[in-house]
Hints:
Low-confidence stretches: 1-11, 21-28, 190-200, 218-222
Strand content: 5-15%
Structural class: mainly alpha
Number of helices: 10
Helix content: 40-55%
Mean pLDDT: 75
Amino acid sequence: MWTYNHVVHATTLIKKKMKKILKLDKMALEASEENFLRLSLLVLRIAPRAVRQHFDKEFHPKVITKVIRQNRLKLHVLREKRILSSSQLSLLFQDGEVSSDDLDIPTMFVLLRNLADVQITTHLPYSTDFTIESDLARLGFYRKQILHSQHTISNTDFKLFWDTITGAIIRLSDGNLKDECESLLKELSSGADEKPRWGIGYLIIDLSGKVQQTVTIEGSNMPYVSVSQDKLYSARWDTGEIFCYDLQGKQTGNSRINPC
């Protein structure tokens, strides 16, 4: 999950880029910045669901709340050691039942490491190691790399990141998310002989999530991306549909002309 600070930082970058586009007569984004946005969507939209699939095997949805309550003292100690943040701790002890749908990747990793004794390293595993722990570590490692990439990723790194991340996602989800990974790449890639499925440019969205302006970028095939009120919006140029996601990568509501 992107933290609030990450989202604000990414939003600032997008706003600066929009201003640059308008000032320079709608010049196209650099490929390295497109690569960053593409990988961010992969990490935000799909990777957390792969982690949740294994998380729910370790902590059955019917008992996760009980397990957390039973380990209240231990979790508070983790907060004192700054392994858990205050916001993460508040989320775990919110009113009502706890669901993995409410947890981001870092929070699930803390619980897996400390309550289920799953050994998730912080370094990149060997390329020949395909254990569950190694695939979880890969997602954590590359997630950090992407968020600390200065929002630019070279074409060479993009291919390595994409292949490694999607490989881990597919294995962790028992193949259930393979089609979504392939669909996301297809949507974000412009084929030489086909019309791009995703729009060319940006939607400028106000704080209520309403589209105020469209900015066309010739020669680019990026989806529109905007962040507003702790939600990420992406939109399709050809249909006008707007997709809304929370910061855990979960789509909120169905696609619609007016965003959620």
